TrEMBL record:
Keywords: Carbohydrate metabolism, Xylose metabolism. Pfam families: ROK. The keyword rRNA processing does not apply. GO terms for biological process: D-xylose metabolic process. Transcriptional repressor of xylose-utilizing enzymes. This is ROK family protein. Gene3D superfamilies: 3.30.420.40, Winged helix-like DNA-binding domain superfamily/Winged helix DNA-binding domain (1.10.10.10).
């Protein structure tokens, strides 16, 4: 049961639920990001709002059904404070519109009528998520409950602006061949981005491509609403709606890859700054006398703990440690990739020539030297996390990207470091968890950017 929704509406009586919802809506009107629906601004800081209470309630009920937080009309009524009549009326509309279907749960040991369960109908529209990364473009076709129906991807190691558009159109076209009933397209892109305009600005190491108006291009080609956000904000949204943060109001999503990015969930909403820029935890300085970062600051976390740098250290260390060691075959505890290496190759050769991945090193047996490298990485990451935790006081930290490859011991050690050093020491330890959607959090998050608009009442 969603904690704060039920809390907000627990005193509801006739119409009070709608009033609460309306208050929620108005509050949203003042703090929601100026995302757009088909290019139309939905809400601004002035508090203007074009949502009616009924639209808000419809979005809320659809969200609770799609996320499976509520499975019956009674549960919906209890969770929202809306009257049973209001819930019944809205659910009836959903059923007529083909958004929601009823299913009778067969109970073998309980007398009486079987409960009627509500779920997203197979006839309901689907959403497409588009993820734009440095090395690939992926698209996914999902139900409103985030069940993956199909996905497409294109990988590259060079790119022009024209190819970027062509790849986006290609993966989306292929999904549209499978499904025509689409509510909208959600986009998650590497930053920096202008989320209000739907433009990728000037990402570093992105083949010199700058100022790409992705949303405009997609809207023009497909005549569908397009919803655009930063990749880690999108991942945070996916975890909030359907993942490990679904019952958490405040959490910090941290994605470590060749950069270190983050997304903040505050008060049950993904935080968007007035400029739409995502929180850059990777550029928190952990040493003011450290090396100069491209951002202009010194000693940024990203300079010490990004996957690329840690991997280089591991390759060097493991190469030395395992110099001359022979692959013992598939039964050996070494990584799968290593075992695919040519028989008789040394681990040192493999590391240098075949390129053991970060995931390989996480799975491989550790030496004192690699343990030390991982510990150093965790110390660096925890330094920036503690700073963030002391400011935000989240309920949870969610790890994504290459952290998904981490051994649970590494996750546990990071949790230990953060809890030792955060300013508030009480009986409520701060959990550190891996993302429910793993390395797909950003991709599923892209689709969530679209479905979230339905949950806000634009259905
Ligand atoms: Zn920096």
């Amino acid at each position: 049961m969603p904690r704060k929704i039920s809390g907000r509406n627990r005193h509801a009586a006739e119409n009070f639920g709608e009033e609460q919802a309306c208050c929620g809506k108005l509050r949203r009107g003042t703090d929601m990001p100026r995302k757009t629906l088909g290019g139309m601004e939905m809400a601004r800081m002035t508090g203007k709002n074009n949502l009616t209470s009924k639209q808000f309630n419809r979005g809320l009920l659809l969200k609770l059904i799609a996320t499976q937080n509520c499975r019956t009309r009674i549960e919906l009524s209890k969770a929202t404070g809306l009257t049973k009549m209001t819930v019944t009326n809205i659910v009836s509309e959903f059923i007529q519109q083909g958004l929601v279907a009823e299913r009778e749960e067969v109970q073998t040991e309980v007398c009486g009528r079987n409960p009627i369960l509500l779920e997203i109908s197979g006839k309901a529209p689907k959403v497409i998520g588009l993820l734009i990364f440095r090395d690939r473009i992926e698209a996914v076709l999902c139900t409103l409950s985030m069940q993956k129906l199909a996905s497409e991807s294109i990988h590259f190691d060079s790119l022009t602006k024209e190819q970027l558009y062509a790849h986006c159109f290609s993966v989306i076209d292929r999904l549209l061949e499978k499904e025509k009933n689409i509510f909208g397209i959600g986009v998650a892109a590497i930053g920096p981005v202008d989320i209000w305009k739907g433009v990728i600005l000037n990402p570093p190491r992105f083949y010199g491509i700058q100022n790409v108006p992705v949303r405009e291009a997609l809207e023009k080609r497909y005549a569908l609403p397009v919803f655009f956000d930063h990749d880690n904000n999108s991942a945070a949204l996916a975890e909030l709606l359907f993942g490990i943060g679904r019952n958490v109001q405040d959490f910090l999503f941290v994605g470590i890859s060749n950069g270190i990015g983050s997304g903040i969930v505050s008060g049950g909403r993904v935080y968007h700054s007035h400029r739409g820029l995502p929180p850059e935890i990777g550029h928190i300085s952990i040493d003011r006398r450290g090396p100069l970062c491209a951002c202009g600051n010194r000693g940024c976390l990203e300079l010490y703990a990004n996957t690329h740098i840690v991997l280089e250290k591991l390759r060097a260390a493991k190469g030395r440690a395992f110099s001359g060691e022979r692959c013992a075959g598939p039964g050996d505890a070494l990584s799968a990739n290593f075992c695919r290496a040519e028989e008789g190759a040394s681990f040192a050769d493999f590391c240098r020539e075949e390129g053991a991945s970060f995931a390989d090193f996480c799975r491989a047996p550790q030496t004192a030297e690699t343990e030390e490298i991982f510990e150093e990485m965790l110390q660096d990451v925890s330094a920036a996390l503690v700073t963030s935790v002391n400011i935000l006081h989240p309920e949870m930290i969610v790890l994504g990207h290459d952290c998904i490859d981490w051994d649970e011991r590494l996750v546990g050690r990071l949790e230990e470091l953060v809890n030792e050093r955060k300013v508030v020491h009480d009986q409520r330890p701060l959990p550190v968890k891996k993302a429910y959607f793993g390395k797909e959090a950003q991709l599923i998050g892209a689709a969530c950017n679209a479905v979230d608009q339905m949950f806000r009442g634009f259905v």
